[in-house]
Amino acid sequence: MAAWLSSCALSLLLLQLSIQPSPLNAIDTLAVNQELSGNQKLISENGNFALGFFQLAEASSGKWYIGIWYNKIPGQTIVWVANRENPVSDPALSSLAISGDGNFVLLVNHSKSPLWSADIKNNTAANSTIVLLLDNGNLVVRHDSNTSGVLWQSFDDFTDTWLPGNKLGRNKKTGIIKQIISWKDRGDPAQGMFSIQLDPNGSLQFILQWNSSVVYWTTGNWTGNEFSGVPEMSPANPYPSSRFMFQFVDNDEEAYFTYNVKNDALIFTRTIIDVSGLFQTLVWAEAQQAWTDAFTKPKAKCSVYGVCGEYSTCSENDASPCSCLRGFSENHPNNWKLDDRTAGCRRNTPLQCANNGSVKVKQDKFYVINSVSLPDNAHNINAKNIHHCELICLKNCSCTAYSHSGTCLVWYSHLMNLKNNIDGSSDSIFIRVAASELPNSRNNKLWFIGTIIGGIFVLSFGVAILYCLQRRRKVMNSLNQGDRSLIRFKHSDLLLLTRNFSERLGAGSFGTVFKGVGSETTTVAVKKLEGFHQGEKQFRAEVSTIGNIHHMNLIRLLGFCSEGVKRLLVYEYMPNGSLDKHLFGSSSLSWKIRYQIAVGIAKGLAYLHEECRDCIIHCDIKPQNILLDASFVPKVADFGLAKLLGRNFSRVLTSMRGTVGYLAPEWISGEAITTKADVFSYGMMLFEIISGRRNLEHKDTSMETFFPMLVAKKLLEGKVQAVMDKELINGVDVRELERACKVACWCVQGNESSRPTMGEIVKILEGVIDVEMPPVPRYLEVLAKCSENVEFFSYETADWTAYTRYTARVHGDAEK
Ligand SMILES: *[C@@H]1O[C@H](CO)[C@@H](O)[C@H](O)[C@H]1NC(C)=O
Ligand SMILES: *[C@@H]1O[C@H](CO)[C@@H](O)[C@H](O)[C@H]1NC(C)=O
Ligand SMILES: *[C@@H]1O[C@H](CO)[C@@H](O)[C@H](O)[C@H]1NC(C)=O
Ligand SMILES: *[C@@H]1O[C@H](CO)[C@@H](O)[C@H](O)[C@H]1NC(C)=O
Ligand SMILES: *[C@@H]1O[C@H](CO)[C@@H](O)[C@H](O)[C@H]1NC(C)=O
Ligand SMILES: *[C@@H]1O[C@H](CO)[C@@H](O)[C@H](O)[C@H]1NC(C)=O
Ligand SMILES: *[C@@H]1O[C@H](CO)[C@@H](O)[C@H](O)[C@H]1NC(C)=O
Ligand SMILES: *[C@@H]1O[C@H](CO)[C@@H](O)[C@H](O)[C@H]1NC(C)=O
Ligand SMILES: *[C@@H]1O[C@H](CO)[C@@H](O)[C@H](O)[C@H]1NC(C)=O
Fold first, then answer.
1. Could you confirm whether 423 is annotated as catalytic?
2. Which interval of the chain is the signal sequence (predicted)?
């Protein structure tokens, strides 16, 4: 009777399953004789995760996968996929169940053999087996009564995601090494090219690999406390990633690394290998309703091996880093659109050499790409000179490119990992294409005829003024074209543009700035440098480095002039002028804009410090050096100039009273100057952005009213709003205010290792990572005193040995 009842109940349940759309909702368990099919889901106990069939918006329809996603987050962020290689066409005809022999299987079209299985063998108690979706995103198969005996779990079967609490490493008994493998592209969870795992050779480091063969990044060995290459992942690191906990375990049974989040609010944290090979920790930002990255390695997108595939170039500066070489087009353009560019590009026109044999070698031509870092697998060839090198390449039909700087390098077949727009690189590469891909001589003739006619035109009018206008237009056209190469101006051009340097915009540490007007739409700022005495060649080298730096929050250098002793720089013009005029002037910036400015400046500096080829220390961060464009987007000005000025910079500093209060203590104390000196100055400026007043402005400034001191104390008392008592700012957001105050206090710590990096500052300000309460910075007391007694800060008596050492270091190369 009882047996009949239960089997009746079971068939009722089964009946329900097939009729009701989702009767399993809010149930986290699948038992024997139950199946998950169609749009049914398992939901974990607290509702964090869901398991079911899904299809991807980016893919063509009719491809369904079974997987786990965040149940509470809009959109569908998949953390695990069972059948990543084998989609099913119809979820209604597919079912996930425990098979008769106790395996966990995905069955399709009522077929007996599973499309996917968890490969559980010798399950002696098949009838008591259950599948359970846990609240940490782990899907567990075990016996009903035995909570510790796990038969299988999705945490052991990584796809591209590593969730908090899961272990990534090696089981020393079985020898199995877990690895995370990227998706192929955003519309296809099948295995892609990139993976991370504990080094299979036995060293204690994680390695990122391309195609399971080429290592393109490693964490560095475990030192006992941290991975040598990523100290921020250290279990002992209390700051500023204090919301994460890390643990590395190496015992007789296993070696693994795991991470966790201290704060439940951060349960929505995941670490992935994304489709472009980056290893990232992402945190769900509730305010922005988006995933924001808390950790990304490698820093340089282009150092991911093969990220752009073959016959393409990679450039760090652009949002989409890859582009095909001239004469080539995208292989699988749809995959390119979905960020999988690993298939690279293919020739538009086959090499004529390959078609016609070596007799017609003339049918192929080369074009040059400058400032590159050369691709892998070059062959070193003996050649007399560059022409000989070219000839050797032309003669071999499988040669695709050559380069000649001292030695002759040639490439056979594929070109991989070619990077362009490399700051300061003098390497060039010559790419071989069918002649028809390059403009032929007929165009040149047209151009020639055009020039003659143009010449006659100019001559026939022959008026000097017209010529001048023409010249100015030419200059302005080159400015307008958005061409990234620097323009070399004649001094006479600049006289014309600035109308004999008549309209002065301001004077900075390095010289006077004038407005230059070319046409109604084009305005530039021309800076006449003072005190620059180095040679033409060195000047040009430095200027070209600066000119190669492109970032939203860094002022763009358009061109330069170097004639005799005259040195001028031409920059984009910022209609809203410098930050100090707005902060300390009569107009009051809203809180929103102030915050936007603080984040923007941090982004610009983070780029200078961390993402350029050679790290650039600004050395002179202050509101006068922050310019604002028409929509108040901040741009850092004068970067790279401290280096350009070299030893003379100390003289500039000593004569600059305007810099008091922004300089880090190490400038005076004799320690070496690092990027943390800029962090200090940024912190001081951030106090001013918050308060809208100069820190050292008022005569009555004392320990009690010195704004940074006030902030540090109020923060500790938990009364951060109190710092805004005097300043009524539109729409101040208390959470942002607290973040900004904390950041500023951390920045001005006397000990530079306590100060965060600019990259961390960006993340803290954006709310992606949290930061502990800062201690009251000791150095503020010194500064507060010094504002009572400015003589304390006498630069004439300061110890400049540190500075001299610093400039000697940055000029090491130039003087060699
Ligand atoms: C299941 O059946 C459908 C329709 O009959 C078919 O298109 C599909 O290929 C089948 N799937 C498998 C895995 O056999
Ligand atoms: C499973 O059982 C078979 C036969 O009893 C045995 O040969 C095999 O070694 C067992 N496998 C495992 C993993 O225990
Ligand atoms: C599992 O249960 C089925 C009936 O539901 C029964 O026929 C079978 O013998 C059971 N198997 C084991 C190993 O207990
Ligand atoms: C639970 O499973 C584990 C691992 O399979 C096993 O070692 C243990 O004896 C089981 N406990 C019970 C009570 O069956
Ligand atoms: C592992 O060893 C092989 C063979 O010695 C070597 O080619 C490979 O580079 C090593 N891998 C790493 C990550 O050191
Ligand atoms: C890491 O450790 C391995 C052996 O454990 C050693 O061969 C290798 O040189 C180390 N790598 C670095 C960068 O120290
Ligand atoms: C990746 O490696 C496999 C096996 O080593 C090889 O067959 C395949 O050609 C490689 N893929 C690419 C794009 O080089
Ligand atoms: C050889 O080159 C000529 C152009 O010079 C081209 O028209 C012809 O198609 C090529 N031969 C083959 C087999 O492609
Ligand atoms: C071209 O170079 C490749 C690689 O060195 C070589 O194998 C091939 O024989 C060469 N072909 C000719 C025609 O010289």
1. no
2. 1-26
Work out which ligand 5 atom sits closest to the CA atom of 218.
13
- Name, in order, each residue with C-beta under 8 angstroms of 168's C-beta and a sequence gap of 6 or more: 158, 162, 178, 180, 196, 197, 198, 206, 256, 257, 258
Residues 183/160, Cβ–Cβ less than 8 Å: yes
Residue 151 Cα, ligand 4 centroid: separation in angstroms? 10
Are the beta carbons of 427 and 399 closer than 8 angstroms? no
CATH of segment(s) 168-299: 2.90.10
The model's confidence at residue 644, banded by pLDDT at 50, 70 and 90, is: low
Ligand 3 nearest atom to the CA of residue 127, by list position: 1
pLDDT above 60 for 658: no
Task: Quick: pLDDT tens for 688-735.
Answer: 898 888 876 654 555 566 788 888 888 888 887 777 755 556 678 888
With a 6 Å cutoff on the Cβ, whether 146 touches ligand 4 is: yes
Q: What are 485-508's pLDDT values in tens digits?
A: 778 888 888 888 888 888 888 877
Distance 130 CA to ligand 8 centre (A): 67
Nearest ligand, CA 93? 1
pLDDT tens per residue across span 727-741: 556 678 888 999 999
Residue 368 pLDDT more than 70? yes
Ligand 7 proximity of 211 Cβ (cutoff 6 Å): yes
For ligand 3, what atom is nearest to the CA of residue 124?
13
Looking at ligand 1, which residue's alpha carbon is closest to its atom 1?
109
127 lines ligand 3 (CB under 6 A): yes
* Catalytic member of 620, 638, 678, 770: 620
Q: What is the pTM of this model?
A: 0.62
CATH 1.10.10 corresponds to the domain 353-442: no
Which atom of ligand 8 lies nearest, measured to the CA of 363? 5
Ligand 9 mean position, distance from CA 415 (Å):
16
Taking CA atoms only, the protein residue closest to ligand 1 atom 13 is: 108
What are 388-406's pLDDT values in tens digits? 898 888 888 889 999 988 8
In CATH terms, the superfamily for domain 17-157 is Bulb-type lectin domain (2.90.10.10)
| Ligand 2 centroid from CA 441, angstroms | 76
Domain spanning 579-815, CATH architecture: Orthogonal Bundle (1.10)
State the CATH architecture for 449-572: 2-Layer Sandwich (3.30)
Predicted local confidence at residue 14, as pLDDT: 38
Residue with tokens 């208390």: 734
Same fold? 17-157, 168-299: yes
The chain-wide mean pLDDT, for the chain, equals: 79
Domain edges within the chain = 17-157, 168-299, 308-347, 353-442, 449-572, 579-815
What pLDDT is stored for residue 756 in this prediction?
Answer: 92
Annotate 52-88 with DSSP letters as a single string.
EEE--TTSPSS-BEEEEEESSSSS--EEEESSSS--B
Checking if the pLDDT of 259 tops 60, the result is yes
Helix, strand or coil for residue 250? strand
Nearest to 712 by CA among 686, 693, 692: 686
CA of 323 to the centre of ligand 9 (A): 29
How many whole angstroms separate alpha carbon 291 and alpha carbon 77? Answer: 10
The Cα-based distances of 645 to 511, 661, 672, 726, 781 in angstroms read 11, 22, 18, 41, 32
